[in-house]
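User: hey, got a sec? need Helix-turn-helix transcriptional regulator folded
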Amino acid sequence: MTGHHAPDDTVQLHRALTRLRDSTRLPLTFGGPVGADQRLRLSEFSGEHRGAMRGVALRVGLGLGGKVVARRRPMVLNDYVSAEGISHDYDRFIKVEDLRAMVAVPVTVRRTVRGVLYGAIRSAVPLGDRIVQSVHDAARDLEQDLAVHDEIARRLDGFAEQLNAAEQPRKGPGGRQWELIRESYAELRLLRHDLADEQLRHRLDSACDKLGRACAATAPAGPAPVLSARETDVLACVALGWTNPEVAADLGIAVETVKGYLRGAMRKLHSHSRLEAVVNARRLGLLP
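Assistant: Yep! Here you go:
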């Protein structure tokens, strides 16, 4: 199954290709997203190239990339030009770039091929297991990044309804709904640190800030204290009743580091306990 890629898959693809080239020293890594028409569009490049392949749309099943999309499995060619296992519809572009040995790996998220990563050299020699494995690993890492991106985008879409409910004067959600909102808020903040897409991260931050302000008990008399992202993360987890070790495990940091962030938040909020810090943060619109 192939499908329409998210608008910013290309951002993630380009970042993955750049990292791949840096780690392997391949002369060229490239690739692109698979669109709603099931064509693989070569749009992202890292390394020296003449631009012959940029914008080329590969039909499913044709060429190396098209066959990888159709089979949903990696392929390695020691010499693209003489390879018998692929069609040669796109040889003219490959020859302009003088590419020979090549590996292509699909990027698959929830059984949907979202893109393809290539690594290539300009000699007809085996690429070697290390190079092939590196491209494979880069594709797996990208799949994880895209899955996280998708999950955050999905949750943000669902967050809109909660925001609308919270913004209704005196018609906010009830007790159980508040619990769900606070759980969603904490989960989104935890996911934020796995998110490489700056645009989606900004959207997430804006939604969290908006929810906090909408849920504030009263408008603050003066400027609210500014908590760091990590202080807010820790406080959001504490608000759910989590222990310091539980917060540390989810954030991937040491327990002592959690305590440090918590002390910082308590100091800024003029609080003497964890509970008081949460109450004050909610009153000031820093937490839902």
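Quick note: The chain is about 50% helix and 10% strand. Let me know if you need anything else on Helix-turn-helix transcriptional regulator.
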